[in-house]
Amino acid sequence: MDFESIPWVLVLPLIILQFILMIVAIIDLIRVTHTNGPKWLWGIIIVFGNIIGSIIYFIVGRRNE
């Protein structure tokens, strides 16, 4: 696959969205005191799970108090 053949107009917004969502999830994970499960595990899921990991954290990992 040639580097120039990648449709950057479609890919770049997804990369930016993933980066922003990951940063927001990490900041929220640091600030919150209690989560559903260990915080270190949620950190791994957020970083290595890309967009899906961050979304799963916000749906399942946050504990509403």
Short summary:
The chain has helices at 8-31, 39-48, 50-61.
What's the layout of helices and strands?
Blueprint (H helix, E strand, L loop, with lengths): L7 H24 L7 H10 L1 H12 L4
What this model shows, in words?
The protein is mainly α and 65 residues long. It contains 3 helices and no strands. The protein has helices at residues 8-31, 39-48, 50-61. Helix 1 (8-31) packs antiparallel against helix 2, helix 1 (8-31) packs parallel to helix 3 and helix 2 runs antiparallel to helix 3. The N and C termini lie far apart (49 Å). 11% of the residues are buried. The mean pLDDT is 90.
Keywords, separated by commas or semicolons:
3 helices; 65 residues; mainly alpha
Q: What string, H for helix and E for strand, traces the elements in order?
A: HHH
Rounded Rg: 14 Å
State the secondary-structure class.
Answer: mainly alpha
Please describe the biggest sheet, giving its number of strands, its sense, and whether it closes into a barrel. Answer: none
Helix content: over 70%
Count of extended strands: 0
DSSP strand content: under 5%
How many helical elements?
Answer: 3
The best one-word shape is elongated
- The residue-averaged pLDDT reads 90
Calculate the terminal CA-CA distance, rounded to whole Å. Answer: 49 Å
**What low-confidence regions span 5 or more consecutive residues with pLDDT below 50?**
none
